[in-house]
Amino acid sequence: MNLNNVTMDLSAVSKKQYPDTSMPEFAMAGRSNVGKSSLINRVLNRRKFARVSQTPGKTATINFYNIDDKIHLVDLPGYGYAKVSDKERLKWANMIDEYLSEREQLVAVILLVDLRHKPTDDDVTMMNWIKGNGFSPIVIGTKYDKLKPSQREASLELVRATLGLTDADVFIPFSAVTGYGRDEIIEILEEACDYAESTKRD
């Protein structure tokens, strides 16, 4: 998988606008300001490929990033931002639910949580949806660099306990600033891509 061959295919607000491809899709879910755009930029080694908003809650579309015509990395709108109106939050929730519930190309949902804080009720709800729909949990703890070394293990344990993660679940601490955890994220994407390719051949 060539990470230098990436494009932003399109932004969608409904299933009628989703790309018409059979490529496996990895959706990234998380609260507003959790760092999804920063993660995309770091993983793809592009400084401003995914726009990082200074105002949380601005991503109001589902964005499809094409990696080497092999997979789509799908950035879902962030949830839980208090300054958005109830009507807007409901619209985004319906948009996310429609994608997660109906998109056949979806092979994994990656949940991003901010390691500086305990996962919220919304995070727990998303994790329960992931498990309840047969997906293997993949959790990325963002902003690892903002924790003091003495805080890190306790923070990781709090996330594991709150989300009910086991040793078999994937949980990667990540920093968009230092790149810590980037190789592990790429490895997950490549393994899933290889699996999808082998399934197609079969």
The number of distinct helices, counting runs of at least 4 residues, comes to: 5
Q: How helix-rich are the residues, as a percent range?
A: 25-40%
- Average pLDDT taken over every residue: 86
The SSE string, one letter per element, is EEHEEHEHEHEH
Rounded Rg: 16 Å
The CATH architecture can be named as 3-Layer(aba) Sandwich
Spell out the CATH superfamily: P-loop containing nucleotide triphosphate hydrolases
Strand order of the largest sheet: 1-3-4-2-5-6-7
What general form does the structure show? globular
Q: Estimate nothing, just give the exact number of structural domains.
A: 1
Fill in the CATH topology. Answer: Rossmann fold
Question: Which structural class is indicated by helix and strand composition?
Answer: alpha/beta
The span between the termini is 20 Å
Largest sheet properties:
7 strands, mixed
**CATH class value:** Alpha Beta
Tell me the fraction of residues in β-strands, as a range: 15-25%
Number of strands: 7
Which keywords apply here?
Rossmann fold, 5 helices, seven-stranded mixed beta sheet, globular, alpha/beta, about 20% strand
Structure, described:
The protein is α/β, with parallel strands linked by helices. The protein has a single domain, classed as 3-Layer(aba) Sandwich (Rossmann fold), CATH 3.40.50. It contains 5 helices and 7 strands. Strands 1-3-4-2-5-6-7 form a 7-stranded mixed sheet, with helices on both faces. α4 links the parallel β6 and β7.
